[in-house]
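Q: What structure does this chain adopt?
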Amino acid sequence: MKTARTVLAAAAILGLLSDYLFHDSLFKSVPWGLNLFVWLLTVTFASLILTCRTKPTSQWKSAWFLVPPLFLAAGCVWRESLVLRSLDVVGAIFFLSAASLSMMGHKMVTAGISRYLFTVLNILDNLVTTPILLLTKEIGWSNMMNDRLRYQLNAIMRGLAIATPIVMVFGVLLITADAAFAAVVKNVFQFDPVKNFQHWLLIFGTFWWAGGYLFSMLRGPLTASSDSPSIDSSLKPKLGLVEVGVVLGLIDLLFLAFVLVQAKYFFGGANLVELTSGLTYSEYARRGFFELVTVASLVLPILLTLDWLVEKTNAVGMLLIRSLTGVQIGLLSVIMISAVQRMRLYQSEYGLTELRLYTTAFMAWLALVCLVFVCTVLRGRRRTFAFASVMSGLLVVGGLHCINPDALIVSTNIDHAKQGNVFDVPYALSLSSDAVPPLVAGINHLKPSERLAVVEKMRSSHSGAWKTDWRSWTWSGDQAYRSVNGYLDKLKIVTTDGTN
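A:
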């Protein structure tokens, strides 16, 4: 019961903190940044404190899952790209869920793919049902007050009932007597039903979520039977070595034919593409890239499913199956290289966009997952595949933060414009503050009309867009403000001197 009360108090604090940190961001369209990091830091400290108080020392190591959400939240303070922030938020939610299940007794490092999929359902169930259990059964409301405390509370309620009408009468008289006092009372007791509903919705929603999350994390260790969902071996569908070998062999042949056709394009250049396909090099690249990405993203699930279904009864047969799978991974690597090559050609013709960059990053993650597949599944260590794949995804997200996608897009497109190509000003201005410093640095390379549009946007943003409090502060926003401020100061000096 003591633990339940502590959880209840922590959930109430998190609810009030959420209202202070996020109300303006959710209901007034104020940008968010540092507030997410502060909130996740508070959740982490609450989780660590409660874990140290209720869990044995041997289970404290599960708390390391709480570290990645802090790095992801710091990414939201570092970069303002909407795509990066979405990846940060999704990643933070996942690792918080993994931390909860790990502290409940699940072995997340060696959990299979089904466990990671089951994680979402488990957490959703905990968030909905656990607060009900916490509030109705674990608190013990009837035992919280002894007879003396109950008598004192009743006395206070009687006093309030007697004082309320008296205070109301005197209050009306004093309000009528003095306009200044009336204004103060009006401001204090001003009631906005919509605004108050927003506050209570945010407070209670976070209280409910935090109560379910923290209390489910602190529940006793799970039994072995409930540690992970499993399928009875007698009910599990199976495929023989021959069936799986035929499937892998045919896919290998199809991919090999494609790779052989691609080889002459790698060495033949643009003329061979145009003569063979009737398309320009850029059209050829655009037409095939996303299809190849789709192929690459479908192969691994198929290979994982076949590895799960095949009967591992014959060592020689399994060696053949894994050899065919290895060949498949090799051919897939060539196809992914072809896709990246097509994107490079397309980019050289049309410039860079978020879709093109993040799709390429997705291909890089698939390449890492393929490497993980070879090191785990093909070596008979399937249980670590899911965890290693998730960590490789975290590595890719961290790499994207380091290269700063929006800044890279603008820098690449400015270099593209230097060669006489069109610079898409509206698209560049639609990007986040991450793109502002390189846009300011390369503004002199733009055409006069393009430069004028950028300067007008800078002036409007400088006059009010960066006027935010500490909750919405971000490093990118601060750098953008400094870049624009410096450029506009130089522009004023040039204008004062009468030069262009």
